[in-house]
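Annex B.
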Amino acid sequence: MALYTDTDFSRKLKPAMLRVGRRVYFRTLQVTEALDLDQPTDDEITPAEAATRGPRA
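Putative plasmid-related protein: predicted structure tokens.
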């Protein structure tokens, strides 16, 4: 997916882009909002945490 095309997805992500020279960085909070991702609450486990914890006892 190219962000230079005029699509709904690219219009959501372009404000999160930050260019530094040739490099392109993305502001993670704005990407989360653009993708409509929910932030985990304090009692929820993220997939990354679940992968490092291993099986439940």
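Residues 28-34 form the longest helix (7 residues). The beta strands are 17-20, 23-26. Further annotation is deferred to the next reporting cycle.
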